[in-house]
Design brief:
2 copies of one chain form a homodimer. The first copy, chain A, is an alpha+beta fold. Chain A contains 3 helices and 10 strands, in the order βββββββαβββαα. In chain A, the strands form 3 sheets. In chain A, strands 7-4-9-8 form a 4-stranded mixed beta sheet, sandwiched between helices. Chain A has a 3-stranded antiparallel beta sheet with strand order 1-2-3, with no helix packed on it. The first copy, chain A, has a 3-stranded antiparallel beta sheet with strand order 6-5-10. In chain A, β8 and β9 form a beta hairpin. Chain A starts with 12 loop residues before the first strand and ends with a helix.
Chain lengths: ~180, ~180
């Protein structure tokens, strides 16, 4: 979990705020804040329920990735399986199990929490909780109605090459690989 | 740079779209799309100009981090220096030089591009371009009017411990550390 901290020389204090847009996915807020020097400014940001992401490690050491269209970027992308928390209050490991199962069909015996990350602290409050899943067994993929997802396993060497060549550029996936590396 | 790709079994095709909210920082879009099975759905997302982030490496190997209030998360955070591209069209290395200088006061002789990352492909098109900066010399910090930033150098061991303890949880920073590791 992340450890928040306060620093009187840097803190920004909320004066007032309003909801700007409440969409299906995006909730935009605009707050007036007091800066550390006493002046005022505005902060626009997105409220997000939070998410989980999973590095699924096969018994032979290969990593299972999913590929899906990421419409905002107009491309198909390779990523680790992930999904939003239901209303932000769901148990993290339950959510990780569900997303792994839905997107890849895999179920895992061993779960390990790696770390949590802030994806875009400048403009959203999204936190993604990262897990490692081992002891995998294959079942049927069962995605949401508007989700279309391909599944493939890669060696670590292949994944590192994909990152270096710009073919795997998803931030949460790269963070999870780094957390696995430093928590070996 | 990232390599976009297309896959006819996964692609989502734009039918129509509209601007939902055009703020100081956030630009919200809502597009109607055709899914791979021919059905239709809606995609809400944030247009972002893109950004750069820099790992500043001192001659003794320590890494320079900045701490600043991240209002959406209601916390002060440790991160590598970073900043948005002006209108998305600025030269990447020029932007990296400016942000490093503004936020930390350091100027660097040696620059190396590491990789680019998509921070939140599910709901924005933000791409952050990551650089390593070496051959650092200290000058005066000169932040924007509403920016308050602390600066401190850490060893790799300290940084890895901070990640493991949840004290450094910024995605772009962790991605940059991983890229440095695999591109050594």
């Amino acid at each position: 979990m992340i450890k928040k901290f306060s620093d009187k020389d840097l803190d920004e204090i909320r004066i007032s705020g309003k909801d700007i847009y409440d969409g299906c996915l995006l909730h935009v807020m605009k707050d007036r804040v007091k800066l550390p020097d006493g002046k005022e400014s505005e902060r626009e940001f997105i409220r997000h329920p939070g998410a989980v992401a999973v590095v699924p490690v096969l018994d032979d050491g290969r990593i299972v990735l999913v590929k899906q269209c990421r419409y905002p970027l107009n491309t198909v992308m390779w990523e680790i399986p992930a999904g939003k928390l239901d209303h932000g209050a769901e148990n993290l490991e339950d959510c990780a199990r569900r997303e792994l199962s839905e997107e890849t069909g895999y179920e895992a015996k061993e779960w390990r929490f790696l770390c949590s990350i802030a994806t875009t602290p400048g403009f959203s409050d999204e936190i993604i909780h990262l897990f490692e899943a081992k002891g995998l067994t294959a079942h049927a993929q069962h995605t949401d109605e508007d989700e279309f997802i391909g599944v493939q396993a890669f060696t670590w060497e292949e994944i590192n090459n994909m990152i270096c060549r710009g073919e795997l550029f998803d931030a949460k996936s790269i963070c999870a690989f780094h957390a696995l590396e430093i928590k070996k």
